[in-house]
Design goal:
GO terms for molecular function: FAD binding; monooxygenase activity; oxidoreductase activity, acting on paired donors, with incorporation or reduction of molecular oxygen. InterPro entries: FAD-bd (IPR002938), FAD/NAD-bd_sf (IPR036188), Ubi_Hdrlase_CS (IPR018168), UbiH/COQ6 (IPR010971), UbiH/COQ6_monooxygenase (IPR051205). Its cofactor is FAD. By secondary structure, the chain is of the alpha+beta class. The protein has a single domain, classed as FAD/NAD(P)-binding domain (3-Layer(bba) Sandwich). 27% of the residues lie in helices and 32% in strands. The strands form four sheets. Strands 2, 3, 9, 10, 11, 12, 13, 14 and 17 form a nine-stranded mixed β-sheet that branches. It has a three-stranded antiparallel β-sheet with strand order 5-6-7, with no helix packed on it. It is elongated.
């Protein structure tokens, strides 16, 4: 299991000399790249510590929901009934849909979801570097087919996110490991897409902007080369936009990808999900303190 802080970001263009870096002085770490296994292990440890108050039903699957009437009578049940595949049922005043972009909770609640396909695919993998380094820079290069990013996981391993066309993604998935590694290195190092015309136009624009607002220049660095592919780490998923028309409705709340799906370009999907959790905890804590019905 791996996690790694990064202290600098470099984003540059394959067709020109355009470059931007982020390395704010005085900031110890800009962020962290954390493997999913690390996050799930931390959550499991926390749940174990709360075992006297929280019961986890592993290998359980919800197959349906029964909703209370919008304005139930005093005799009516205020609970949502959750039907499980094994025949059991659960009751709750508030059902939280944290079940991803294809949320069954969202569908069952009748909450509309606006979707848009980007007609792009993200190819992901875990890659070993050719040599051990500090590996504390997040790299992103914009190619004609889409951005490619190399994110540090340890001194010797990095995580790849390559957004590209569906045809190219299929080609990358069919490659043997050696050819795939060569393709990744070429995508970061090759200058075949460089255009003198675009570079000249960009330089003129940069000069004009610098006259109006002088700033320090960014120093270009070269990313580390990749030596091999992590075992069974290569995968792909389609990219698109998704956003629900409502985050909350009586007796239900949506968080994470169940509520919103974004392009991995800025790497903010999971951060937005964590923000949802923090916001929901804040409001539920206030409601509980005031003695309110948590589902309303």
């Amino acid at each position: 299991m791996r996690l790694k802080p990064f202290k600098r970001m470099q984003v540059w263009d394959a067709c020109s000399d355009a470059l931007i870096t982020f390395d704010k002085e005085g900031m110890e770490d800009m962020g962290y790249i954390i493997e999913n296994d690390v996050i799930t292990a931390a959550l499991t440890c926390q749940l174990d510590a709360l075992s006297d108050r929280v019961k986890v039903l592993y290998r359980s699957r919800a197959v349906g929901y029964t909703w209370p009437a919008p304005y139930s009578s005093a005799e009516g049940s205020p609970f949502v009934k959750i039907h499980l595949a094994d025949g059991q049922s659960l009751h709750t005043r508030l059902l939280i849909g944290a079940d991803g972009q294809n949320s069954t909770v969202r569908t069952a609640a009748g909450i509309n979801n606006i979707q848009w396909s980007y007609n792009h695919v993200a190819v992901v993998a875990t890659l070993q570097l050719s040599e051990s380094t500090e590996n504390n820079v997040a790299w992103q290069r914009f190619l004609p087919t889409g951005p490619i990013a190399l994110l540090p996981l340890s001194d010797t391993w990095s995580s790849l996110v390559w957004s590209t066309s569906p045809d190219h993604a299929s080609e990358l998935l069919r490659m043997d490991d050696e050819s795939f590694v060569d393709a990744v290195n070429s995508a970061f190092w090759n200058s075949e897409h460089h255009s003198e015309f675009i570079s000249s136009a960009g330089s003129l624009l940069h000069s004009a902007v610098s006259l109006l607002s002088p700033s320090g220049s960014s120093t270009r660095q070269l990313p580390p080369s990749v030596s091999c592919l992590g075992d069974k780490s290569r995968a792909a998923f389609p990219l698109g936009l998704g956003h629900t028309t409502e985050y909350i409705r009586r007796r239900v709340a949506l968080i994470g990808d169940a509520a919103h799906k974004v392009h991995p370009l800025a790497g903010q999907g999971v951060n937005m999900g964590f923000g949802d959790v923090a916001s929901l905890v804040h409001h539920l804590s206030r409601a509980a303190f005031d003695g309110q019905d948590l589902g309303k």
